[in-house]
Design goal:
single chain; mainly beta; Neuraminidase; 2% helix; globular
C-alpha cells in the first residue's frame, strides 16, 4: 500500500486502481547510473520465453502485493479491494482467482505478501489488523494473527532466513514479528500479533498518512531495512540490538513502497519518485548505515507501481495505479530486467 491518499480508502478498506497493459518496450534510466549497473535492460521474453506481463482478471482487481513461491513457478497477487488473492504461473500470461475475498476470515482487503520456504502464504491485512497464513497447496487458513489495536494499517511483510516474519504498520509506530515457532502447524486459530519493537523515540517519525511501508531483511540477516514513505527515507533496524537508525542517502529522497534486495543492491518501488513510475536502485554499503542511489529506472508500462518480487534476474512489478481517474484495463503485473 502506498500514498497518503490511501488513508481514506484504508478506513473503508477499499481503494481504486488501474494498470496500463504491457507492450514490448525498454526500461529507461531517469538518473545517472553508477558502477555496478550497466544499463536498464530490455524485459523481452528471455527466461524461457516468459511473458512480459500478466493479466489480472476483472475490472476491480486493484492489485497491491505480490509474492513469488520459491518452490515452483507460481506467484500470488493481492487485491486491496476485497482481499481476493490471484495466482499466476510465470510461464503463462493468464492468472486466476485462487482465494476469493473471505469475510469469514476477515480478509476483506489484502496488502503485502510473501511465500516462505514451507509453502505458506503470509498476507498483511491493512486496516483489518490481521495477518493471515495460508497453505499454498490446499488454500487452507493455517493461522490468523491479530493486533487487537485501534486504527492499524498492516502494510508489508519480510522473511528472515530463520523463518521469522516481520510486519510493518503504517499508522502505528510498531514493528511486529511472527516467529518461526508460531508458524508451525496451524488450524486457523486466531492468536495475538506480538510487537517486536516500539518505534517511538527512534529516528522514524510517525506523521499523518503512510509512514513505514516496505521492508526487507539484509542478506547477512543482521538488519531490517524499512521504508518511510512519508519522509522519503530509509531506516536500518538492528535485529539483535533492536535499535533503529536513519540510513544516509547522500541527500536523495526515496519514497519506497515495496523493497527487494539482492547482494548489496536494494530495489525500492515508488509511485512518487522520478516520474511517479519508478524502481529506485541503491547500493547499500557495509553495515547498512549508508546507501547510494544508482538509478531511478522507469518504463512506459509502469503506472503507479506498488511492490515487486524477484523471478530469476527479473522483477515482477505490480501496477497498483491508486487513485487513477481513468485506469487502463486489464490490470497487470509487468516483468522488468534491470542489470
Amino acid at each position: 500500500m502506498h500514498t497518503t491518499r490511501l488513508l481514506a480508502a484504508a478506513t473503508a478498506v477499499a481503494a481504486t486502481a488501474g494498470v496500463l497493459a504491457a507492450g514490448p518496450t525498454t526500461p529507461a534510466v531517469a538518473a545517472p547510473i553508477a558502477d555496478g549497473i550497466a544499463s536498464a535492460a530490455s524485459h523481452h521474453q528471455h527466461q524461457h520465453h516468459r511473458p512480459g506481463s500478466y493479466v489480472l482478471a476483472g475490472d476491480d482487481a486493484y492489485p497491491e502485493g505480490i509474492a513469488r513461491d520459491p518452490r515452483g513457478p507460481y506467484f500470488y497477487v493481492s487485491s486491496l479491494t476485497d482481499g481476493r488473492i490471484y495466482r499466476g504461473d510465470v510461464r503463462s500470461s493468464r492468472t486466476s482467482v485462487w482465494l476469493p475475498g473471505n469475510a469469514a476470515d476477515g480478509r476483506t482487503t489484502a496488502g503485502g505478501m510473501k511465500v516462505d520456504a514451507a509453502g505458506r502464504l503470509i498476507v498483511a491485512g491493512g486496516g483489518t489488523g490481521y495477518v493471515w497464513v495460508y497453505d499454498t497447496r490446499s488454500g487452507a487458513l493455517l493461522h490468523r494473527f491479530a493486533t487487537g489495536t485501534a486504527n492499524p494499517m498492516l502494510n508489508d511483510v519480510a522473511l528472515a532466513a530463520n523463518g521469522d516474519v516481520y510486519v510493518t504498520d503504517s499508522f502505528q509506530p510498531t514493528l511486529y514479528r511472527i516467529t518461526a515457532r508460531q508458524l508451525r502447524g496451524g488450524g486457523g486459530m486466531t492468536v495475538p500479533l506480538r510487537p517486536f519493537l516500539d518505534l517511538r523515540g527512534t529516528s522514524i517519525d510517525y506523521d499523518d498518512g503512510f509512514n513505514l511501508n516496505g521492508l526487507v531483511v539484509t542478506p547477512d540477516q543482521r538488519y531490517l531495512i524499512v521504508a518511510d514513505y512519508n519522509d522519503g527515507a530509509l531506516h536500518r533496524v538492528d535485529l539483535r540490538r533492536r535499535t533503529v537508525s536513519a540510513i544516509d542517502l547522500g541527500g536523495a529522497a526515496v519514497h519506497g513502497d515495496g523493497l527487494l534486495m539482492r547482494g548489496d543492491l536494494l530495489y525500492a518501488v515508488s509511485n512518487l519518485d522520478g516520474d511517479g513510475n519508478t524502481v529506485n536502485v541503491l547500493r547499500l554499503h557495509p553495515s547498512a548505515g549508508r546507501a547510494t542511489l544508482l538509478a531511478r529506472v522507469t518504463d512506459p508500462r509502469l503506472h503507479g507501481p506498488s511492490t515487486a518480487a524477484f523471478d530469476g534476474r527479473d522483477l515482477l512489478v505490480v501496477n497498483f495505479q491508486y487513485g487513477a481517474s481513468d485506469p487502463v484495463l486489464p490490470y497487470t503485473v509487468v516483468r522488468l530486467t534491470i542489470r
